[in-house]
Amino acid sequence: MRKLKNNELNRLNIKEFKQAGKIPVIVVLDNIRSLNNIGSVFRTADAFLIKEIYLCGITAQPPHKDIHKTALGATESVDWRYFSSTVEAVNRLKKEKVRIVSIEQVENAIPLHKFEVVPQTTYALIFGNEVKGVQQEIVNLSDYCIEIPQFGTKHSLNISVSTGIVLWEFVKKTGYLLKN
User: pTM for this one?
Assistant: First the structure.
């Protein structure tokens, strides 16, 4: 086996990415403090053709060198917008009939592998602050809460890792892999 060169990967350019059909998912970052985590989420959103990212509250916005360090240009391909509060973003999404899903450990959370994605439905996946998680007020506004099953001693995963796991699961469940 031989490692492929970047030019052999047949990736989209930015113009093609902007015109491509997207996975019907909006990632909502609820007060993320680490610029590296924000950049990583952009890069993951680009990898999986995610529709958009909402940056909320204290979540920093591009352009910023520390976001760029991990995003590696994904801030140019993935659409994003900023909201001063996550509540404002969620209320807007609710008016647009988007399903609100908090990724959080709560009573009666649905394990990620058991969550059923409804075809032709747009989902907003909310990822919370590195220390405090998704705000309780946002959990209260959510249609669903999903938990990533964990089996070790730690109580949580890094937000960028959680985003990758959840987005990959949504890509599989939307049937996008079957189309390509």
Answer: 0.96
